[in-house]
């Protein structure tokens, strides 16, 4: 058994976990180790999203999401500039397609103003086409603060910073169980035992299971939703300058099928939102009996399904039918045709679902003895990762009695 005892072990090598480890090392005199189950950092949610730097437009003013997104966007951009990670602030257009969506568009404008966004403007069709010449719709909202980045690249840069500060990242170290040995924790992993004084759970798709193995009731169940993307081929890719979004359904924490120019080139369309039958189920054929049965047995899922089965069927049909997906895209940009689109990748969202069937739309963190469990970190978690990391690190510092540094170590 390993003899070293870490002050903090972070379970999960996605962007939130690595940002938390980086902040802990910058702010406290603490030894920190990151455990990642896979053979690389950012293997799941972080590495499968559309790379959008969110502005803070959508989120209820005063919520954790709103505060962390606005501050996190600034911190993320500063980090990217310092570490040489390419990003671009290109702006996006949110489009109302019919009169019934205009009140929701106006509410987004009010939220943007309340969250401190400047330069957000409502536009008619001619104004929208100054930004996106091929867009359809009756009214739009121009949001200049939105950007694009490669979040895998951001996470790798954060990982390098962790190691520069004396932390350690262990890949291939899937968390299995934990037991207490006096005042210490002994974590059993796929690569051996790890001793620690405290634990921070940022395990994403497995976060509720990690909490339960730690003897903590998460209060929620992680239900995986797969979002599938298509890629626009030339000449259709040239129809999209930057980002085009529909007005989202306010009852769901999903933003609808949208068009996104990527930092590495090309344009993605998506995602939809369908129930995944495996927590890491990036293909329709990915099935885990255990994961599926756990989802179906959760009372919250049954209540959600009874309430929204029509929407679920529509999303499933759009997953199976290219023509249905293309119709969603053509509502925003009518010149796109089916022959312009090829299947791209997919991501799986770790959506926390309450027993009453409510989809949690904000961050959900549960604290235990010597532990902090991050059980819901929805979009904009990647954008807000450094701000979230500071929030979690502050909790850890208070709960674990970590010694603060008089000043953070200088960035290289």
- Which ranges are low-confidence, i.e. pLDDT below 50, for 5 or more consecutive residues? none
The amount of helix comes to: 25-40%
The CATH class assignment of the largest domain is Alpha Beta
Mean pLDDT: 94
- Per DSSP, the total helix count is 10
Number of domains: 2
CATH superfamily of the largest domain: FAD/NAD(P)-binding domain
Q: For the report, how would you describe the main beta sheet?
A: 9 strands, mixed
Q: Can you name the CATH architecture of the largest domain?
A: 3-Layer(bba) Sandwich
Shape: globular
From the N-terminal CA to the C-terminal CA, the straight-line distance is 35 Å
CATH topology of the largest domain: FAD/NAD(P)-binding domain
Structural class: alpha/beta
Strand content: 25-35%
Structural summary, described in words:
- It is a single chain.
- By secondary structure, the chain is α/β, with parallel strands linked by helices.
- Helix content is 32%, strand content 25%.
- The protein has two domains: 1-91 and 145-220 and 363-412, FAD/NAD(P)-binding domain (3-Layer(bba) Sandwich); 224-232 and 266-359, no CATH class.
- The chain is built from ten helices and 22 strands.
- The strands form four sheets. Strands 6, 7, 8, 15, 16, 17, 18, 19 and 20 form a nine-stranded mixed sheet that branches. Strands 10-3-2-14-22-21 form a six-stranded mixed sheet, with helices on both faces. It has a four-stranded mixed sheet with strand order 1-13-12-11, with no helix packed on it.
- β11 and β12 form a beta hairpin.
- α1 packs parallel to α5 and α1 (15-27) packs across α10 (385-400).
């Amino acid at each position: 058994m390993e003899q070293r005892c870490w002050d903090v072990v972070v379970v999960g090598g996605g962007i939130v976990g690595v940002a938390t480890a980086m902040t802990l090392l910058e702010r406290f005199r603490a030894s920190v180790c990151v455990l990642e189950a896979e053979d690389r950092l950012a293997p799941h949610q972080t590495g499968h999203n559309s790379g959008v730097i969110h502005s803070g437009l959508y989120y209820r003013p005063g919520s954790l999401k709103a505060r962390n997104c606005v501050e996190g966007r600034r911190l993320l951009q500063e980090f990217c500039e310092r570490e040489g990670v390419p990003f671009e602030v290109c702006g996006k257009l949110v489009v109302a397609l019919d009169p019934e969506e205009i009140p929701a568009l106006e509410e987004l404008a009010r939220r943007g103003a309340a969250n401190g966004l400047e330069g957000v403007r409502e536009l008619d069709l001619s104004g929208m086409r100054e930004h996106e010449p091929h867009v359809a719709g009756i009214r739009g909202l121009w949001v200049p603060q939105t950007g694009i980045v490669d979040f895998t690249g951001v996470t790798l840069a954060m990982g390098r910073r962790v190691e520069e500060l004396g932390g350690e990242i262990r890949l291939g170290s899937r968390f299995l169980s934990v037991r207490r040995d006096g005042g210490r924790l002994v974590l059993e992993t796929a690569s051996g035992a790890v001793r620690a004084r405290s634990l921070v759970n940022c395990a994403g798709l497995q976060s509720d299971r990690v909490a339960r193995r730690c003897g903590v009731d998460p209060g929620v169940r992680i239900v995986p939703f797969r979002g599938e993307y298509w890629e626009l081929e030339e000449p259709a890719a040239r129809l999209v300058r930057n980002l085009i979004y529909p007005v989202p359904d306010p009852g769901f924490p999903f933003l609808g099928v949208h068009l996104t120019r990527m930092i590495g080139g090309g344009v993605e369309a998506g995602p939809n939102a369908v129930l995944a039958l495996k927590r890491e189920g990036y293909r329709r054929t990915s099935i885990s009996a255990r994961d599926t049965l756990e989802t179906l047995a959760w009372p919250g899922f049954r209540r959600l399904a009874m309430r929204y089965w029509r929407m679920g069927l529509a999303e499933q049909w759009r997953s199976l039918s290219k023509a249905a997906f293309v119709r969603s895209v053509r509502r925003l940009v009518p010149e796109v045709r089916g022959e312009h689109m090829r299947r791209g990748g997919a991501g799986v969202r770790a959506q926390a679902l309450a027993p009453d069937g409510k989809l949690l739309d904000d961050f959900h963190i549960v604290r235990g003895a010597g532990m902090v469990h991050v059980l819901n970190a929805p979009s904009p978690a990647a954008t807000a990762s450094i701000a979230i990391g500071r929030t979690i690190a502050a909790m850890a510092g208070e709960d674990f009695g970590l010694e603060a540094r008089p000043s953070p170590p200088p960035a290289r």
